[in-house]
Amino acid sequence: QWARRMTKLKALSVLECRDYVIDTFGADAPARIKAAMTATARGQIYSEQLMASDWVELEAVVEHAVVIDYLFGSGDGKVCSEMIREITARHHRGLYKAILSAPNPREALTRSSRLWPRFYDRGETLVEFPTPTTAIKRIVGCLDLPRRAELLVLPYYEETIRQAGGRDVVSEHVQCVASGADCCISRLGWSEGFSPFP
């Protein structure tokens, strides 16, 4: 399974998640997480030699996120979402402020697509806007994305919209390569008090 070519994520994101876990759940949290992970994923995520510029198999990153969500939440994705949103907010305030600063959600989502190759070693994201307050995000060129990879991307999209002034943000992962589709598709919306989705 791990010998085949897999999409990889920049280890900077992994290190940020590891720091978030300690800051939020305490110094003993990593030991609990490691005990619940498979040996292969654990070896990648918690390697003592891991550096921010390294690449980590995305499947291991998703497993890490899922374990965190089950250990410190109810497994419904909320804890993972909070983690990704907080890390994304930090990027907007610091590391990627120059790229992500935008006057509105449409521009922010357009600019965020430029960051995909900074974090992933293959593929790209495309965005279109069916209405002024909805967006369709496609991830193309990554036919091996693991199941539940949306745990990482949906909160990122949501926080990007919030940072650009969007409110009442909603999101749906409506098509997934892990289920046989040719690309992953997410729908996003921001509104004032009602869902823009029919």
Tell me what you see in this structure.
The structure is a single chain. The chain contains 9 helices and 6 strands. α3 (39-45) crosses α4 and α7 (105-112) packs across α9. The protein is globular, with a radius of gyration of 16 Å. The strands form 2 sheets. Strands 3-4-6-5 form a 4-stranded antiparallel sheet, covered by helices on one side. A two-stranded antiparallel sheet has the order 1-2. With 198 residues, it is of the alpha+beta class. It has helices at 11-25, 29-36, 39-45, 58-72, 78-93, 97-100, 105-112, 116-119, 150-163; strands at 8-10, 55-57, 124-131, 134-140, 170-175, 184-189. Helices cover 46% and strands 17% of the residues.
Compact overview of the structure:
The protein has a 4-stranded antiparallel sheet with strand order 3-4-6-5, covered by helices on one side. It has a two-stranded antiparallel sheet with strand order 1-2.
Task: Work out the helicity level.
Answer: 40-55%
The order of strands across the largest sheet is 3-4-6-5
What are the secondary-structure elements, in order, as H or E? Answer: EHHHEHHHHHEEHEE
Main β-sheet, in a few words? 4 strands, antiparallel
Low-confidence stretches: none
Report the principal-axis shape. Answer: globular
The strand count comes to 6
* First-residue to last-residue Cα separation: 40 Å
How many alpha or pi helices? 9
Provide the structure class: alpha+beta
Topology (SSEs and partners):
Elements: E1 8-10, H1 11-25, H2 29-36, H3 39-45, E2 55-57, H4 58-72, H5 78-93, H6 97-100, H7 105-112, H8 116-119, E3 124-131, E4 134-140, H9 150-163, E5 170-175, E6 184-189
Antiparallel strand pairs: 1-2, 3-4, 4-6, 5-6
